[in-house]
Task: inverse folding
Protein backbone atom coordinates (compact mmCIF):
# COMPACT_ATOMS: atom_id res chain seq x y z
CA UNK A 1 0.00 0.00 0.00
CA UNK A 2 2.76 2.40 0.89
CA UNK A 3 4.46 1.70 -2.44
CA UNK A 4 1.37 2.90 -4.28
CA UNK A 5 1.35 6.25 -2.58
CA UNK A 6 2.72 9.12 -4.73
CA UNK A 7 4.75 11.12 -2.22
CA UNK A 8 5.43 14.72 -3.35
CA UNK A 9 7.41 17.36 -1.63
CA UNK A 10 5.14 20.37 -1.13
CA UNK A 11 6.12 23.37 -3.27
CA UNK A 12 6.14 26.68 -1.48
CA UNK A 13 4.58 29.80 -2.96
CA UNK A 14 8.01 31.42 -3.30
CA UNK A 15 9.29 28.45 -5.32
CA UNK A 16 6.23 28.56 -7.54
CA UNK A 17 6.78 32.26 -8.14
CA UNK A 18 10.45 31.64 -8.91
CA UNK A 19 9.54 28.94 -11.41
CA UNK A 20 6.97 31.17 -13.12
CA UNK A 21 9.48 34.00 -13.29
CA UNK A 22 12.07 31.70 -14.82
CA UNK A 23 9.59 30.48 -17.43
CA UNK A 24 8.67 34.04 -18.35
CA UNK A 25 12.32 35.00 -18.72
CA UNK A 26 12.98 31.96 -20.89
CA UNK A 27 9.98 32.75 -23.08
CA UNK A 28 10.96 36.39 -23.53
CA UNK A 29 13.08 37.04 -26.64
CA UNK A 30 16.65 37.98 -25.90
CA UNK A 31 16.36 41.22 -27.86
CA UNK A 32 13.40 42.34 -25.74
CA UNK A 33 15.56 42.58 -22.62
CA UNK A 34 18.22 44.79 -24.20
CA UNK A 35 18.25 48.50 -23.54
CA UNK A 36 20.26 51.34 -24.97
CA UNK A 37 23.62 51.21 -23.16
CA UNK A 38 25.43 54.00 -21.39
CA UNK A 39 28.29 55.89 -23.00
CA UNK A 40 30.77 53.28 -21.85
CA UNK A 41 29.55 51.16 -24.78
CA UNK A 42 28.30 48.15 -22.81
CA UNK A 43 25.82 45.73 -24.33
CA UNK A 44 26.63 46.15 -28.02
CA UNK A 45 25.69 43.45 -30.53
CA UNK A 46 26.85 42.97 -34.10
CA UNK A 47 24.28 43.04 -36.90
CA UNK A 48 23.12 39.75 -38.34
CA UNK A 49 23.33 39.20 -42.12
CA UNK A 50 19.60 39.93 -42.36
CA UNK A 51 19.98 43.19 -40.46
CA UNK A 52 22.91 44.24 -42.65
CA UNK A 53 20.80 43.42 -45.69
CA UNK A 54 18.09 45.70 -44.28
CA UNK A 55 20.68 48.47 -43.86
CA UNK A 56 21.77 48.24 -47.47
CA UNK A 57 18.20 48.10 -48.76
CA UNK A 58 17.41 51.22 -46.76
CA UNK A 59 20.52 52.91 -48.14
CA UNK A 60 19.48 52.05 -51.68
CA UNK A 61 15.98 53.46 -51.15
CA UNK A 62 17.40 56.61 -49.60
CA UNK A 63 19.74 57.07 -52.54
CA UNK A 64 16.72 56.55 -54.76
CA UNK A 65 15.05 59.64 -53.26
CA UNK A 66 17.67 61.76 -55.04
CA UNK A 67 16.30 60.55 -58.37
CA UNK A 68 13.82 63.42 -58.30
CA UNK A 69 16.50 66.12 -58.47
CA UNK A 70 16.38 66.24 -62.32
CA UNK A 71 12.59 66.58 -62.15
CA UNK A 72 12.85 70.37 -61.92
CA UNK A 73 14.80 70.36 -65.20
CA UNK A 74 12.01 68.40 -66.86
CA UNK A 75 9.40 70.67 -65.27
CA UNK A 76 11.01 73.86 -66.59
CA UNK A 77 8.56 74.38 -69.51
CA UNK A 78 5.53 74.24 -67.22
CA UNK A 79 6.97 76.01 -64.16
CA UNK A 80 8.57 78.97 -65.93
CA UNK A 81 6.24 79.61 -68.86
CA UNK A 82 2.88 81.09 -67.91
CA UNK A 83 1.40 80.43 -71.35
CA UNK A 84 2.24 76.71 -71.33
CA UNK A 85 -1.40 75.71 -71.00
CA UNK A 86 -2.39 77.61 -74.16
CA UNK A 87 0.74 76.90 -76.20
CA UNK A 88 2.52 73.93 -77.72
CA UNK A 89 4.03 72.54 -74.55
CA UNK A 90 6.52 69.69 -74.24
CA UNK A 91 4.18 67.22 -72.55
CA UNK A 92 6.58 64.26 -72.71
CA UNK A 93 9.25 66.21 -70.87
CA UNK A 94 6.84 67.15 -68.10
CA UNK A 95 5.60 63.56 -67.88
CA UNK A 96 9.17 62.31 -67.34
CA UNK A 97 9.51 64.75 -64.43
CA UNK A 98 6.23 63.48 -63.00
CA UNK A 99 7.47 59.89 -63.26
CA UNK A 100 10.61 60.81 -61.31
CA UNK A 101 8.52 62.34 -58.53
CA UNK A 102 6.28 59.28 -58.40
CA UNK A 103 9.40 57.16 -57.89
CA UNK A 104 10.48 59.63 -55.20
CA UNK A 105 7.20 59.12 -53.36
CA UNK A 106 7.58 55.35 -53.48
CA UNK A 107 11.18 55.50 -52.27
CA UNK A 108 10.25 57.86 -49.45
CA UNK A 109 7.71 55.47 -47.97
CA UNK A 110 10.04 52.50 -48.52
CA UNK A 111 12.84 54.08 -46.46
CA UNK A 112 10.58 54.20 -43.41
CA UNK A 113 8.88 50.84 -43.87
CA UNK A 114 12.16 48.95 -44.33
CA UNK A 115 13.78 50.29 -41.16
CA UNK A 116 10.69 50.21 -38.93
CA UNK A 117 11.11 46.62 -37.59
CA UNK A 118 14.56 47.57 -36.28
CA UNK A 119 14.14 51.11 -34.98
CA UNK A 120 10.89 50.29 -33.19
CA UNK A 121 13.11 48.51 -30.64
CA UNK A 122 14.30 51.98 -29.61
CA UNK A 123 10.91 53.71 -29.42
CA UNK A 124 7.90 52.36 -31.29
CA UNK A 125 5.97 55.63 -31.08
CA UNK A 126 8.79 57.63 -32.66
CA UNK A 127 9.29 54.90 -35.29
CA UNK A 128 5.59 55.08 -36.19
CA UNK A 129 5.86 58.85 -36.34
CA UNK A 130 8.69 58.50 -38.83
CA UNK A 131 6.63 56.18 -41.03
CA UNK A 132 3.70 58.62 -40.82
CA UNK A 133 5.84 61.65 -41.74
CA UNK A 134 7.29 59.89 -44.77
CA UNK A 135 3.83 58.77 -45.86
CA UNK A 136 2.39 62.29 -45.57
CA UNK A 137 5.39 63.67 -47.45
CA UNK A 138 4.85 61.19 -50.30
CA UNK A 139 1.13 61.98 -50.47
CA UNK A 140 1.88 65.71 -50.76
CA UNK A 141 4.44 65.02 -53.49
CA UNK A 142 1.82 63.07 -55.44
CA UNK A 143 -0.69 65.91 -55.02
CA UNK A 144 1.88 68.20 -56.62
CA UNK A 145 2.33 65.73 -59.47
CA UNK A 146 -1.44 65.63 -60.03
CA UNK A 147 -1.58 69.44 -60.17
CA UNK A 148 1.07 69.65 -62.89
CA UNK A 149 -0.35 66.80 -64.92
CA UNK A 150 -3.74 68.50 -64.70
CA UNK A 151 -2.22 71.49 -66.52
CA UNK A 152 -0.95 69.13 -69.21
CA UNK A 153 -4.43 67.62 -69.55
CA UNK A 154 -6.00 71.09 -69.84
CA UNK A 155 -3.53 72.06 -72.55
CA UNK A 156 -4.26 68.92 -74.54
CA UNK A 157 -8.05 69.29 -74.26
CA UNK A 158 -8.64 73.04 -74.51
CA UNK A 159 -5.54 74.68 -76.00
CA UNK A 160 -7.33 75.24 -79.34
CA UNK A 161 -10.17 77.15 -77.67
CA UNK A 162 -8.81 80.68 -78.11
CA UNK A 163 -11.77 82.26 -76.34
CA UNK A 164 -10.92 80.41 -73.14
CA UNK A 165 -7.20 81.22 -73.10
CA UNK A 166 -7.51 83.70 -70.22
CA UNK A 167 -9.51 81.29 -68.06
CA UNK A 168 -7.12 78.45 -68.81
CA UNK A 169 -4.14 80.59 -67.81
CA UNK A 170 -5.83 81.47 -64.51
CA UNK A 171 -6.62 77.83 -63.75
CA UNK A 172 -3.08 76.79 -64.63
CA UNK A 173 -1.73 79.48 -62.32
CA UNK A 174 -3.83 78.11 -59.48
CA UNK A 175 -2.56 74.58 -60.10
CA UNK A 176 1.02 75.82 -60.12
CA UNK A 177 0.39 77.46 -56.75
CA UNK A 178 -0.83 74.11 -55.43
CA UNK A 179 2.40 72.48 -56.62
CA UNK A 180 4.50 75.14 -54.89
CA UNK A 181 2.68 74.62 -51.60
CA UNK A 182 3.04 70.84 -51.74
CA UNK A 183 6.78 71.30 -52.27
CA UNK A 184 6.85 73.45 -49.14
CA UNK A 185 4.69 71.26 -46.89
CA UNK A 186 6.06 67.96 -48.18
CA UNK A 187 9.81 67.81 -48.85
CA UNK A 188 10.53 70.90 -46.73
CA UNK A 189 8.52 70.37 -43.54
CA UNK A 190 8.05 66.60 -43.53
CA UNK A 191 11.64 65.82 -44.49
CA UNK A 192 12.96 68.19 -41.82
CA UNK A 193 10.74 66.62 -39.17
CA UNK A 194 10.92 63.00 -40.34
CA UNK A 195 14.41 62.46 -41.73
CA UNK A 196 16.11 65.10 -39.64
CA UNK A 197 14.55 65.01 -36.18
CA UNK A 198 12.73 61.67 -35.85
CA UNK A 199 15.15 59.46 -37.79
CA UNK A 200 18.07 61.37 -36.30
CA UNK A 201 16.76 60.64 -32.79
CA UNK A 202 16.32 56.94 -33.57
CA UNK A 203 19.80 56.67 -35.03
CA UNK A 204 21.31 58.55 -32.10
CA UNK A 205 19.67 56.36 -29.49
CA UNK A 206 20.34 53.11 -31.32
CA UNK A 207 23.94 53.88 -32.33
CA UNK A 208 23.35 52.21 -35.67
CA UNK A 209 25.30 55.05 -37.31
CA UNK A 210 28.27 57.14 -36.16
CA UNK A 211 27.08 59.92 -33.89
CA UNK A 212 29.00 62.71 -35.68
CA UNK A 213 27.09 61.73 -38.84
CA UNK A 214 23.77 61.63 -36.99
CA UNK A 215 24.46 65.07 -35.53
CA UNK A 216 24.26 66.52 -39.04
CA UNK A 217 20.67 65.29 -39.26
CA UNK A 218 19.74 66.49 -35.79
CA UNK A 219 20.99 69.96 -36.71
CA UNK A 220 19.81 69.93 -40.32
CA UNK A 221 16.22 68.90 -39.49
CA UNK A 222 15.39 71.97 -37.35
CA UNK A 223 17.17 74.24 -39.85
CA UNK A 224 15.03 72.84 -42.68
CA UNK A 225 11.91 73.46 -40.58
CA UNK A 226 13.09 77.01 -39.91
CA UNK A 227 13.58 77.58 -43.64
CA UNK A 228 10.06 76.29 -44.32
CA UNK A 229 8.52 78.47 -41.62
CA UNK A 230 10.22 81.52 -43.14
CA UNK A 231 8.75 80.70 -46.54
CA UNK A 232 5.32 80.07 -45.04
CA UNK A 233 5.35 83.45 -43.26
CA UNK A 234 6.62 85.27 -46.35
CA UNK A 235 9.99 86.19 -44.86
CA UNK A 236 11.83 84.80 -47.91
CA UNK A 237 11.07 82.92 -51.11
CA UNK A 238 11.34 79.15 -51.32
CA UNK A 239 14.11 79.39 -53.94
CA UNK A 240 16.05 82.27 -52.39
CA UNK A 241 19.56 81.82 -51.04
CA UNK A 242 18.92 81.63 -47.29
CA UNK A 243 16.36 78.78 -47.22
CA UNK A 244 18.51 76.83 -49.66
CA UNK A 245 21.50 77.25 -47.33
CA UNK A 246 19.43 76.28 -44.29
CA UNK A 247 18.22 73.13 -46.05
CA UNK A 248 21.71 72.08 -47.20
CA UNK A 249 22.67 70.22 -43.96
CA UNK A 250 19.51 68.12 -44.23
CA UNK A 251 20.41 67.15 -47.81
CA UNK A 252 23.97 66.33 -46.73
CA UNK A 253 22.62 64.13 -43.91
CA UNK A 254 20.34 62.17 -46.21
CA UNK A 255 23.01 61.62 -48.85
CA UNK A 256 25.67 60.68 -46.28
CA UNK A 257 23.22 58.30 -44.61
CA UNK A 258 22.49 56.50 -47.87
CA UNK A 259 26.17 56.14 -48.80
CA UNK A 260 27.16 54.92 -45.31
CA UNK A 261 24.43 52.28 -45.21
CA UNK A 262 25.27 51.03 -48.70
CA UNK A 263 29.01 50.82 -48.02
CA UNK A 264 29.28 49.89 -44.33
CA UNK A 265 25.78 49.02 -43.10
CA UNK A 266 24.88 49.19 -39.42
CA UNK A 267 27.41 49.58 -36.64
CA UNK A 268 27.20 47.33 -33.55
CA UNK A 269 24.23 48.43 -31.49
CA UNK A 270 22.29 47.37 -28.39
CA UNK A 271 19.14 46.82 -30.47
CA UNK A 272 20.67 44.34 -32.91
CA UNK A 273 20.50 40.58 -32.49
CA UNK A 274 23.93 39.33 -33.57
CA UNK A 275 26.77 38.14 -31.32
CA UNK A 276 27.98 40.47 -28.56
CA UNK A 277 30.81 42.84 -29.41
CA UNK A 278 33.36 44.28 -27.02
CA UNK A 279 33.62 48.09 -26.91
CA UNK A 280 37.17 48.05 -28.31
CA UNK A 281 35.87 46.54 -31.56
CA UNK A 282 33.34 49.31 -32.12
CA UNK A 283 35.67 52.27 -31.85
Result:
Amino acid sequence: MLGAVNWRHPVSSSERGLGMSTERNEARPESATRTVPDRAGQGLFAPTPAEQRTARIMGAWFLGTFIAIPAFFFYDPILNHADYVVGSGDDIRVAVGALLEILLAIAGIATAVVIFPIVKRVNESVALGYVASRTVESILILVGVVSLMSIVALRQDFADAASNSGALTDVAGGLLAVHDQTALLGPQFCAGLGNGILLGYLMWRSRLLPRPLVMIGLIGGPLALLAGIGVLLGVWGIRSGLPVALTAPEAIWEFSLSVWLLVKGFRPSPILTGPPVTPSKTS
Observations:
- Residues 1-41 have pLDDT under 50 and may be disordered.
